[in-house]
Amino acid sequence: MSGRVEAVCVSGSDLLPLPDKRPDRSGIDKRPVTGRVAVHELGLDGDVQVNRRHHGGEGQAVYAYAQDDADWWAAELDRELLPGRFGENLRTTGLDLRGAVLGERWSIGTALFEVTAGRTPCANFARFWGVPDLVKRFAAHGATGAYLRVLQTGEVGAGDPVEVVARPGHGITVETAFRIATTQQSRLPELVPALHHLPVKDQPKLQAKIDRRLAARV
Fold it and tell me: Would you say residue 200 lies in a domain?
């Protein structure tokens, strides 16, 4: 399976101000850049992730969003949604990110990535778009995009093919995992085969919830 990178986006130093918020800035306003971009273990060269409690880290180093899903939102909201408007680093085509399997690996340029999770929308996202009920609508629609772990550093650029070079057999997709972790928590034990692919910082809390669910069944 393969797709393509339509744009590579970073926030740089032009951070979105957040009045009366802590932190008082956000890196969600990302813009396309030209040329090759270096991929480091914790993200793209020039990108900024301000709130490290909820964003960034080894399992959320890079964020991808599909053009097809962006087109759906553009029609839904009757507005243009250029690359970067979802806070994504990679705008992709030709890949079903909702159906991406946790742990599948993507080769892009000279870098290698692993799919770790979908994005949980936050209030800053709604504020950035000026859509007060966006968090609820984004979660209900389920096109969360995909967070990526960097397995091999390198360089990426617009136009690069995205090659899915490995896919685990457990079959747990980004959208399925998102539903289970949010609105279908009775199904949490189903995440066990894919738990080690999730961002490391999220694993202990989810494991504890799974253990409680399993204990309740005994």
Answer: no
What CA–CA distance (Å, rounded) separates 100 from 61? 17
In a domain, 126, yes or no: yes
CA distance 49 to 26: 7
Our count of domains for the chain comes to 1
The closest alpha carbon to 181, from 125, 133, 104, 117, belongs to 117
Question: Can you tell me the distance from the alpha carbon of 148 to that of 155, in angstroms, rounded to the nearest whole number?
Answer: 15
Q: In the block, which residue shows the tokens 């093919």? A: 161
Does any domain span residue 132? Answer: yes
Is the pTM here over 0.90, yes or no? yes
Q: Is residue 181 part of a domain?
A: no
Burial (Cβ within 10 Å: 0-12, 13-18, ≥19) of residue 15: middle
pLDDT tens-place values along the chain, 218 residues long: 689 999 999 986 666 566 566 656 666 889 999 999 999 999 999 887 765 565 678 999 999 999 999 999 999 999 999 999 999 999 999 999 999 999 999 999 999 999 999 998 888 788 888 899 999 999 999 999 999 999 999 999 999 999 999 999 999 999 999 999 999 999 999 999 999 999 999 999 999 999 998 888 76
> Which range of residues forms the domain containing residue 37?
2-170
